[in-house]
Structures are given as C-alpha cells and as structure tokens.
Amino acid sequence: MEKHQIPMEYLSVGFIGAGKMAESIARGIVASGLLPPHHMSTAVHSNLDRHDVFQSFGVNVFSSNEEVVEESDVVIFSVKPQVVKKAITELRSKLTKDKLIVSVAAGIKLKDLQEWAGHDRVIRVMPNTPAAVGEGASVMSLGTAATEEDGALVAKLFGSVGKMFKADEKMFDAVTGLSGSGPAYIFLAIEALADGGVAAGLPRELALGLASQTVLGAAAMVSKTGKHPGVLKDDVTSPGGTTIAGVHELEKGSFRATLMNAVVAAANRSRQLSQT
C-alpha cells in the first residue's frame, strides 16, 4: 500500500461545489454508513440555502475552498465544466500529491485535469442524475498516477449512490450518450406509456404509477436475473397474445433503431462539445 493510502475510518472527503450532485454523493455516503458526515466538507460562499442543506445532515461547511482542500484526503470537483480550470488552478498549491483529485465535470479530460492540478493522481467520473435517488450509473477512468487502491476507494464512494463501472476515457463520449443522457430517454418513455394508458381508458395518476413502476421492475429484472433483455422479452411474449401485438407496433415505429440513434447522436454531440 502506498503511503498516501488512508484507512477508510480516517478518510476525509471534500467537495468543491455544493450543488445537487455533491449533495447526492454526500447523502449516499452517509446513508451507506461508509463515512460519518463530519468526515466530509464543502464550502458555500453566498447561497445560504445550500449552506443549510449540507449542515442539516452534518457535513462541515467552510467559507473557503482552501479550507476544504486542507481538511480532505479526497477532493471531488463537482462544479460546472466551464469553471473547473479556474477552480483547480486557484487551489493548485494546496492540491498536493497526497490528495486524490476526482472530477465529475462532463467533457473535461484527464490530461487537462492533470495539467491544471500539477500532478497525475486524478480520477475522472461520469455520474448521472439518478444518483440523487441512490440509483446512479457512474463510470470512472484513472489518471496516470492514480492507483488501483485509489480506484477501489472512488468505486466505494460512488457505489453509495448506485453502480460504478470502469472504462477507458476514450469511451466517455459514448458513456455520455447512453447513461449521461439516457435518463431523459426513459423519462420520455414513461410519459409516453402513461399517455398510452390514459388513451386506453386509465386515470392519469394510475397510468403514471403503473408506467414508472413497470420500467423500474423491468430494469430490476435485467439487473438481478442476469438474463439478456431479449430472453426476458420472449418470456412475456405469448403466441398471438397482447404483448406481441404491442411489440409489433414498436417495431413498425422503429423503436429500437430510434433509441440507438438517440445514444449515437448524444455521443456525437458530447464529442463536439469536448473539442470546443
């Protein structure tokens, strides 16, 4: 074990940026019992509401980012992509190699993060919004000097708000197109299923409840059974029955091709944005 590895019971985590994503991660860490809230900190400069939110569940709230970095072994940059460079360079003198840097900013590459920080012990994470309800899908890529132990630690932290996957950074635009933007596609699908229920005669509230729970249940079946979704689809599709009639309509509307195209379009857009 390298000398900068800290046992979990002594670990401290700081958030630069006190927005919704930082809050979700901090709440997840507390709820999972991974760390007590007083082992985490953030800084709030003007928004008193954010100050109160973090303080309400025991996170230390400082008045400056410098204090957060000084108190932390892991520093998570959870700020908008356009301010990451400014945030890191302003703190560079305090971001020593004994501090693991994690960035959740979309489109900001490891090579830039490492250059701004002045060292390579950096991990880039791409989370998604369901982290707010503990069902996030996060993907990480390790910087040059980040160790396997660093990766395992970050996987534990983000594992408290969902599932963590590991991938080469060159896949991150595709990750953005699938898990980053994907929740919006599923929200549309839930809305459309509910509208279909209303069109077929259901009250709106019942239709929406059934639609959202059906999507949740179907996702859980794929995740928990390990069966291919095509097999699960076949299991519910009886000869000449109701489901195959609905599936036939989806095929006529190019449902699968449309979803595939949506992922590719979002991935291409992510690629464009990261090059600007």
What does this molecule look like?
With 276 residues, the chain is an alpha/beta fold. It folds into two domains: 8-169, 3-Layer(aba) Sandwich (Rossmann fold); 180-275, Orthogonal Bundle (ProC C-terminal domain-like fold), CATH 1.10.3730.10. The chain contains twelve helices and eight strands. Strands 3-2-1-4-5-6-7-8 form an eight-stranded mixed β-sheet, with helices on both faces. The protein is elongated. The mean pLDDT is 93. NADPH binds at residue 65.
List keywords for this structure.
276 residues; alpha/beta; Rossmann fold; ProC C-terminal domain-like fold; 8-stranded mixed β-sheet; 8 strands; elongated
Indicate the topology.
Blueprint: E1 13-16, H1 20-32, E2 40-43, H2 48-56, E3 60-62, H3 65-71, E4 74-77, H4 84-91, E5 100-103, H5 110-117, E6 122-126, E7 136-142, H6 148-159, E8 162-166, H7 172-180, H8 182-199, H9 204-225, H10 229-236, H11 242-252, H12 255-275
Parallel strand pairs: 1-2, 1-4, 2-3, 4-5, 5-6, 7-8
Antiparallel strand pairs: 6-7
Helix pairs in contact: 4-5, 7-12, 8-9
EC number: 1.5.1.2
Domain Pyrroline-5-carboxylate reductase catalytic N-terminal: 13-107
Organism: Raphanus sativus (Radish)
Short description:
Its EC number is 1.5.1.2. With 276 residues, the chain is an alpha/beta fold. It is 53% helix and 13% strand.
Total strands: 8
Summarize the biggest pleated sheet. Answer: 8 strands, mixed
Q: Biggest sheet, strands in spatial order?
A: 3-2-1-4-5-6-7-8
Low-confidence stretches: none
Q: What's the name of the CATH homologous superfamily of the largest domain?
A: NAD(P)-binding Rossmann-like Domain
Order of helical and strand elements: EHEHEHEHEHEEHEHHHHHH
Total separate domains? 2
How far apart the termini lie comes to 39 Å
Instruction: Give me the CATH fold name of the largest domain.
Output: Rossmann fold
Name the overall outline: elongated
The amount of beta strand, in percent, is 5-15%
DSSP helical segment count: 12
Domain Pyrroline-5-carboxylate reductase catalytic N-terminal: 13-107
Binding site for NADP(+): 16-21
GO molecular function: pyrroline-5-carboxylate reductase activity
Family: Belongs to the pyrroline-5-carboxylate reductase family.
